[in-house]
Amino acid sequence: MFDEDDKRSKRVETVYDDGSWSVEYYKKGKLHGVCEYVDAEGGWKTVTYRNGVRNGPQEWLDASGQNWSLAHFRNDELHGVWEFHTVKSGWGKMNYRKGYLHGRCEQILPTGAWKVENYFKRKRHGRCEYINDAGVWRLERYSYGYRHGEFVHVTPDGSWVKMRYENDIKHGEYVYVESTGYWEVNTFKHGREVKRVTSED
User: Fold this and answer.
1) Where are the domains positioned within the chain?
2) What is the pLDDT of residues 23-38, one digit of tens each?
3) 20 DSSP 8-state letter
4) Pairing relationship of beta strands 68-74 and 53-61 according to DSSP bridges
5) Pairwise CA distance, residues 175 & 186, whole Å
């Protein structure tokens, strides 16, 4: 993207007192091209600019090699896939559109917990699954940010819950079963319990 024949294009190399350095490209006084940065610890980053704003891939790798990130930008907003790995946050792969979460997003934490969510314009939308540190599995369905549809919750000992939501309100049959054999079935109507039956009745 840097034009050697364009007199208005300029390559600027800078070395700082702490040992960090950068190589930047300018066109008409604005950052334009793939610019490279190295921090004092040896961490490395490249940023793609066009007419002064981020447009294209942005990569980052720390000095240890254990933490990294690859994101994509359009007009200075996250747009496309952002994939990362850090010791603290684990691995993730997110989809963005015009700065908002949009599409399938996955993350696996160092503890073994994980989640797969779907978004539409930064709101959860569709099937979402979760497993927490204790091994509890949860399935939820969303519609434009509200729980809407099936909800399932299963614990490692075999106990489980199954219910339905409408616009984030319990509506329909709620079934709870314990590993001990105890169970109950509740019926909700717009958040209000209207019927309850248990194995002890």
Assistant:
1) 1-110, 117-201
2) 999 999 999 999 999 9
3) -
4) antiparallel
5) 6
